[in-house]
Amino acid sequence: YQRRVxxxxxxxxxxxxxxxxxxxxxxxLSFMLWASVEFGTVLFSVHPIMMSSCCVCMLSGLTVYRxxxxxxxxxxxxxxxxxxxxxxxxxxxxxxGAILANKIIEDKSWAPGSLHAGLGLAGIALMGMQVVVGxxxxxxxxxxxxxHSWHGVVGPLIAxxxxxxACTGLWEAPAQFPGKLVLSIISAGLIAIVVVIRFRIPxxxxxxxxxxxxxxxxxxxxxxxxxxKGSNAAEYADDL
Length: 240
Prior knowledge:
The chain is mainly alpha-helical. 74% of the residues lie in helices and 0% in strands. The protein has helices spanning 2-12, 15-39, 46-61, 64-67, 74-105, 115-142, 151-172, 177-200, 214-223, 232-237.
C-alpha cells in the first residue's frame, strides 16, 4: 500500500506538474503580448491581461489536490488551493475595475451589452459566492470539520463559465483574426492539460476509504498529514 501511494506521488509531481506551469506561463505571456500589440498601453488592455491571468490561476487551483502529492500535508495543499484561487479573485477585481474605469472615461453604460459582458457578470457573481463558501470551508477544515461538500463540484463549473467568458471576449474584441486564433489554440491547450490532470491523476485521498484495512487507514492519515479530529470526510473527501 505504501508503494502504491508513493508511486502516485511521483507520478503526480512529475511531468504533469511541470507542463502545467509551462503552459500557464505561456498563456499569460501570450495574452500580455497580444493585448499590448492590439491595444497598446491604454487602460482597456489591462482588462484582458488581468482576466486571462485570473482564468489561469483558477485552472491551476483546480489541479492542486491532484498534483500536490500525498507526501505533502493536506493543510499545505489546502493553503496552495486558497492561494491560487485567492490570486484569481484579486486579478478578477483588478480586471473588472479596469474595464469599469474605461467605461467611465469613455462615457459608456455599465450595463452588460454583449454575451461576453453577460457571462462575465454571471461569472463574477458565482465567484463571489464560491469565495464566501470557500473561506467558511477552509476555516472549518482547520478545526477538522467538513462543510459544504458541493464546493468542489461547483468550482469546475464556475471555471467553465470563466473560460466561456474569455472565449467570447476574445472573439468579440476588435482585433486581428490570426492573434485570436493563436490565443484560442494556446488556451485550449492549457484547458486540455488541466482536464487530463484531473482525470489521469487521482485525488490524493482514498475514495473507497471504508474498504481500507485499519493499518492502511492509519498509514494514509499519517502520510498526508491528517489529524485525528473530525470525520473521515473532513480529512479526505470534500476538498476540491
